[in-house]
Amino acid sequence: MAGARQNAALPIVRGQVDGETIVVRVTSTPLDAVGGRARVASTAGAFLVTRLDTTVFVALTGTCSHESCQITDGDAQAFVCPCHESRFSVEGMVLRGPAELPLERYATGFADGVLTIRL
Ligand code: FES
Q1: Mean pLDDT, all residues of the chain
Q2: CB-based burial of residue 77 (10 Å sphere; 0-12 exposed, 13-18 middle, 19+ buried)?
């Protein structure tokens, strides 16, 4: 059954839209530590963000490549879509379908505790 997997809702972190950029202050959020991840919510959409290293982040679209559900969950290794349980790696690659296409990835920058996601 679907409920047997240990999915959990991703923590939400607010992002501010500034032109073509999403600005995220990571201090005191789950993204403050290496290995942290969160769903960044903004008026320009939601993004799945993982902090890989001190200054290295990966930002993916929060919209599933299968039928456009919002990806709100994760397990220990993957982002998980709640609609049909497609699983995606931190880099956005499909680990398990029904999705067939990877998640779109956005360029990021980081300085002075502020992550930027470029649209
Ligand atoms: S919409 Fe995400 S798995 Fe179907």
Answers
A1: 94
A2: exposed
